[in-house]
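Supplementary Note 2. Why include the ligand at all?

Several targets in our set were suspected to adopt different conformations when bound, so apo predictions alone were not considered sufficient. For every target with a known small-molecule partner we therefore ran a joint prediction. The input for aspartic acid is given below.
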Amino acid sequence: MVTTSDTTPLPLLVIYAGGTIGMQASSRGLIPAGDMAARLEAALATLPPLRRRALPAYVLWESPEPIDSSSATFADWSALAALIAAQHEAYAGFVILHGTDTLAWCASTLAFQLQGLTKPVVVTGSQRPLGQPDSDALDNLEASLAFAATPGWREVGLCFHGRLLRGCRARKWYTRDDTGFESPNWPLLGELVDGVAVLYPARAWRDDDGAPRFELPAREPAPQVVRVTLWPGIDATLVERWLEAPQVAGAVLECWGSGNLPDDPALIGVLARAAAEGKPLVALSQCPIGGAAPGTYASGQILNDIGVMSGDDMTVEAACCKLTHLLAQDLPQEELRRRFLTPLVGERGAFTPQVDSA
Ligand code: ASP
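The joint prediction is reproduced in token form.
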């Protein structure tokens, strides 16, 4: 895509996938729009000269069909992963412009598909379209370019409102507020301080192998992983219909508190049968902060007894993406289990503040 001599610093690759950041008004509300090259240039040209000069060089790749990310699928994100895998050597880093609705899903699945990254990958979007008065788009774009061009970190980050979050720890938290996202169980990887992109290295993911081990899906379409959120009085026969469906390959159970479920033999029987049939099950907490530890209470111990894997403090996006990803690798059950329970890209496990020198 680009050719450079040994002495020329590599540019960034900016990938425009869609989302509000590139949308335009229509009679039915905002719709995805193209011609991003000219619109990006025009927006960046409005920056004060010093900030314009500080922008890193970039090459734009525009999707021929930008989408509202509420329609995004795993196939769309696998195509993004394949593009980055193919162009990994040619660019210094990557910025993906994407809708915010499923941005945390995009970031999570990219992290699992692009293990061993040696360059930054930054996903971003905005709450209001580029070019609209009071839009947050230009700020998010400028900050994302700055973080993507800052060496010293090598993972999938989500940049929004001057903050860099680990992508597979982030969740869309606000529908309108510029903050957009939170990372409830991991601190910021970096933030803008007086307009300068500052990283907190002790919080970054350290990949001991430090070499690309990209894992694009071995099969498509992506296996169906269902989300089952408990509610008081949940009817086991409803859960049974989902888990027995032949196209369902696994499930993420969003349990109570630290990983508890009702003392209902019918519900436990449904889960036990699915697990015995080889459909991997994961237990998460419905609480955003802290995570699940099934077995803390007797009402959660049954999950351990029937082989449900604890999702610990993973976000639901990361847990679903990880399970989908591992199922798409066609691994033996024990290996799938081992990998699910091991942090692969910093997606699970508590942060220990003592090691943070930031
Ligand atoms: N519906 C939009 C999308 O996800 C919302 C956004 O980008 O903020 O594409």
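Residues 42 and 281 are 49 Å apart (CA to CA). Residues 1-5 have pLDDT under 50 and may be disordered. Comparable summaries for the other entries are listed in the accompanying table.
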